[in-house]
Specification:
elongated, mainly alpha, 3 helices
Length: 77
Amino acid sequence: MRAQASLSRLQAETTFANITSGPVAKLQQQAQQLLGRVNTHPASYTFADYSRSKAAHHSTRAALPLLAAERLLGASF
């Protein structure tokens, strides 16, 4: 699942950068909540599950440039 892979990468990078608050942390939390509501069983996977997974993927992908900016600035927004 691409969303889970993106979330794992974001979690690793936020841990490395020691970021615990701000927009990156909020996007990470949002992605975790969305993925927590996805039913991964193939027989009962619905369009709502697909949509949540896509939204989680987009949230984590949006957080990565913000994370890079925070690292460049050396401070949280």
